[in-house]
Each structure stands twice: as C-alpha cells, then as structure tokens.
Write a structure and sequence with these properties.
152 residues; alpha/beta; Rossmann fold; 38% helix
Length: 152
Amino acid sequence: MKRVALFPGTFDPFTIGHQSLVTRGLNLVDEVVIAIGVNDKKLTHFSLESRIQAIKCLYQNEPRVSVSTYNSLTVDFASEIGAQFILRGIRTVNDFEYEKSIADVNRILSDIETFILFTLPEHTHISSSIVRELLRYGKDISQFVPKETELY
C-alpha cells in the first residue's frame, strides 16, 4: 500500500483548495495522511481541535484519508508514518522555488520523493488567511469552504 503525507502548506483544511489536493493525492496513492503542524507560537483563527474535527467530518466516508498532527521536520514525520511520498500544496510560482528546495533536502535526508502540486486555478487565492479576514469582518464564507464542514 502506498501512503502519502500531505502537508497542506498555506492551505487551511477548511478551504475548497485543500480538498482538491486530497483528491489529487488519492489519484497518486492508496492512502493520504493529512499532516497538521503543531506550532504553539502561530496564531490561527481555528483551533487545532476544530481543524482536526473539520477534516474528520469532511472525509468521514473516505477510509483512505486520515489526519495526524506533527511537531517535527516534515520528512521525519513522513518516515514515522511510513509514507513513501510527501505531497505539498502551493499557490504561486514564488512558493515553488522554496518547496523545490525543501523537496531536494527531503530526498537527501530520507529518499522520500516530494510531489509539489499547484492548487487548481479557481482556488489560487482562497487561503486560510483570506477566510480568516472575511470572518473577521462578518462576511459570508460559505462559497469558499466545503459544504460538509461545520466551522463552529
């Protein structure tokens, strides 16, 4: 069984762009583990628990998708869970150079290959920071989030 560790990068699990990455990941391998970084210093609108719950709710009928937290190098986490691949999501060409450098380092450290996927064009600008900003001003975000996800 081939497993991939998906590191959403700039995508929050609540966004539709995130779903496209998972779907495309499932086309590459048998199982996708969505890795959510634990960083106590990073302020986010959504709690870690709510993010995990949203992912579980969203993929409750897809046994090939699971979620896990990590607090280490991405390559170390991928090795720990037995992933043969790392999947990174990016939005812009500028992100690509950085991610390519990380992919090269990961390959040297562990022989784990990294796939870098651009989000689909229609989701290019739908990041968690935009969703947070819309929420802050009381705007309707329903068109940007998966329908199955409960935010609150």
